[in-house]
Amino acid sequence: MKSVIDIKDLSTKELEEIIAVAEDIIENPEKYAHKCDGKKLATLFFEPSTRTRLSFEAAMYELGGHVLSMSDAMSSSASKGESVADTAKTVSCYADIIAMRHPKEGAPLVAAMNASVPVINAGDGGHNHPTQTLADLLTIHREKGRFDNLTVGLCGDLKFGRTVHSLINALIRYKGIKFVLISPDELKVPSYVKNEIKDCGLEYVQTKDLEEFMPQLDILYMTRVQRERFFNEEDYLRLKDSYILTPEKLATAKEDLSIMHPLPRVNEISVAVDDDKRACYFKQVLNGKYMRMALILKLLEVK
Ligand code: CP
To answer: What's the per-residue H, E or C state across the chain?
Structure first.
């Protein structure tokens, strides 16, 4: 029984198999409509979510399965002091697979160690968000047709932005990837993530200046400043609008740039950019559902 807590839990071959299944689901959805008949997914969300929870639930319904949903920690016995371990043991009695989001780093790992069914990390604190990375990878695959030899700009809150950490950990497997890490000093990528880039022999630059590097980028991955991770509101207010992408700032960008964002967006991409053919962020949303379908099939070992 396999759980996915970190994108590193999936080999490069497994990632590519999941992408291939997702592509097949897009082409032939009817083939998959009953693959999970009689199976149940539990979505245990101890933090707010729109895309991740609803796309997991849509994914299971589209596979013919059922969903048990907990969308709010206060409506569960966690509010009475129940541990993550006991919750995982309990929900294993009702569901065949669990997707968990939690504000504490490592909570889905604890769940996986105690559950008797596969657990998927749907975002743990500022740490990891592997299924967002699956959505991002399918988007890159469909937009670029490759993962190697890309210059990838990651911009915004690179410290607390868990999607950034997981995406870097997926892309470092490919050759010729160059990262441009664009953030204020206070929101730089953690050292452990930078070390992983270095250990793979890949290049990165750290900068505060998005516009200087814009012409070089094949992918621009914007992120929200993560208000919920800040210890004081003053710092958040000072940093929240560090980067606001507008059509004017895209004037020097490549014609085939892919503009990505895990969403939700606050101010960091002007809505005027939505009409730009290079904007991919709502494609990412849809791709996330197909990749979560493919991941559920894999973890439930459905042929
Ligand atoms: N991208 C993402 O995780 O969105 P939600 O917080 O809405 O699930």
So the answer is: CCCECCHHHCCHHHHHHHHHHHHHHHHCHHHHCCCCCCCEEEEEECCCCCHHHHHHHHHHHHCCCEEEEECCHHHCHHHHCCCHHHHHHHHCCCCCEEEEEECCCCHHHHHHHHCCCCEEEEEECCCECHHHHHHHHHHHHHHHCCCCCCEEEEECCCCCCHHHHHHHHHHCCCCCCEEEEECCHHHCCCHHHHHHHHHCCCEEEEECCHHHHHHHCCEEEECCCCHHHCCCHHHHHHHCCCCCECCHHHCCCCCCCEEECCCCCCCCECHHHHHCCCECHHHHHHHHHHHHHHHHHHHCCCC
| Catalytically annotated residue among 43, 52, 163, 223 | 52
Residue 129: active-site member: yes
Domains defined for the chain, CATH in brackets: 7-128+288-299 (3.40.50.1370), 130-284 (3.40.50.1370)
Report the pLDDT value the prediction gives residue 228, as an integer from 0 to 100.
Answer: 84
Query: Tell me: the pLDDT tens digits for 137-171?
Result: 999 999 999 999 999 999 999 999 899 999 999 99
CA of 125 to the centre of ligand 1 (A): 12
